[in-house]
């Protein structure tokens, strides 16, 4: 999957691509993430290490120089446009990313060598199996609904779908593929499976504002709620253009037909 002729940062981003099912935009620049004014007051756009638009996710891979003094990288005898040496400027810009990225509605995940299989100098040994396992945990959301939503989003991406801004701001996930549009309601593990499934159907019904036959609706649930989600008869779901998808405990997606 990854080779030794790429940087550790590129190696990590490649593993994230594999987990997320989407290719990152590397060194992406947002119009709202800016450095300090330089000569003439011009402010350059700061890059982020990797951005996955479909997941609304930014990953920063921060090697040792981001967390400890490193004269080779810090250039302590040279001042930057920020009026400080490069090491201090790096810390200032990292803090700016930490604040601005979430403020603009994106999820930020910071990964460091110590999170993976690395030596004392912060160089990765590139043990892919253990690194993939570690990254899956790092990229995972805390709530089960987030897990279900992220897993289904990845599944859609691998199927040629493109996530888009929802028409209704309360929609968990919306995606398009050619003329097709899919509007999704996701649920996580719950002790009130039947009630939550009924609520989810009601939420989908309220979003059925389009008469376009290419628009369908999805109820996405964990395995523990699959039985409750399929209590609505299949012929009724077919009339309403609602499909039910199960996300298993090991993050596989399957469409339920019964």
* Structure class: alpha/beta
Q: State the separation between the terminal residues, measured CA to CA.
A: 38 Å
User: What is the CA-atom radius of gyration, in angstroms?
Assistant: 22 Å
Largest sheet: 6 strands, mixed
Q: Provide the CATH topology of the largest domain.
A: Endonuclease, Chain A
> What's the level 1 CATH class of the largest domain?
Alpha Beta
Q: Count of DSSP helices?
A: 8
> From N to C, what is the helix and strand string?
HEEEHHEHHEEEHEHHEE
Helical percentage:
25-40%
Mean pLDDT reading = 89
Number of domains: 2
Name the shape in a single word: elongated
State the low-pLDDT regions, or none: none
Strand content: 15-25%
Tell me what the structure shows:
This protein has 258 residues and is α/β, with parallel strands linked by helices. It folds into 2 domains: 8-139, 3-Layer(aba) Sandwich (Endonuclease, Chain A); 144-256, 3-Layer(aba) Sandwich (Trna Endonuclease, Chain: A, domain 1), CATH 3.40.1350. Helices cover 34% and strands 24% of the residues. The chain has 8 helices and 10 strands. The strands form 2 sheets. Strands 5-6-7-8-9-10 form a 6-stranded mixed beta sheet. The chain has a 4-stranded mixed beta sheet with strand order 1-2-3-4. A hairpin with a 2-residue loop joins strand 6 and strand 7 (180-186). Helix 1 (8-20) packs across helix 4 (128-139).
């Amino acid at each position: 999957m990854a080779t030794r002729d790429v940087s550790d940062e590129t190696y990590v981003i490649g593993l994230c691509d594999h987990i997320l099912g989407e290719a990152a935009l590397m060194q992406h620049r947002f119009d709202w993430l800016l450095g300090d004014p330089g000569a003439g007051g011009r402010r350059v756009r700061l890059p982020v290490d990797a951005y996955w638009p479909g997941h609304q996710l930014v990953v920063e891979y921060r090697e040792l120089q981001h967390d400890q003094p490193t004269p080779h990288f810090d250039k302590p005898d040279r001042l930057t446009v920020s009026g400080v040496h490069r090491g201090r400027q790096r810390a200032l810009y990292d803090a700016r990313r930490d604040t601005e990225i979430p403020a603009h509605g994106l999820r930020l995940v910071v990964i460091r060598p110590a999170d993976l299989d690395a030596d004392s100098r912060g160089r990765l040994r590139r043990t892919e199996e253990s690194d993939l396992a570690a990254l899956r945990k790092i990229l995972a959301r805390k709530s089960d609904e987030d897990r279900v939503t992220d897993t289904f989003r990845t599944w859609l991406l691998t199927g040629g779908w493109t996530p888009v801004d929802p028409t209704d701001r309360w929609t968990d996930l919306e995606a398009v593929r050619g003329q097709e549009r899919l509007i999704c309601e996701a649920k996580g593990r719950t002790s009130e499976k039947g009630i939550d499934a009924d609520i989810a159907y009601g939420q989908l019904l309220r979003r059925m504002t389009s008469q376009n036959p290419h628009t369908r609706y999805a109820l996405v649930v964990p395995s523990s709620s699959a039985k409750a989600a399929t209590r609505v008869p299949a012929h009724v779901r077919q009339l309403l253009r609602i499909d039910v998808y199960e996300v298993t405990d090991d993050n596989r997606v399957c469409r339920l037909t019964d």
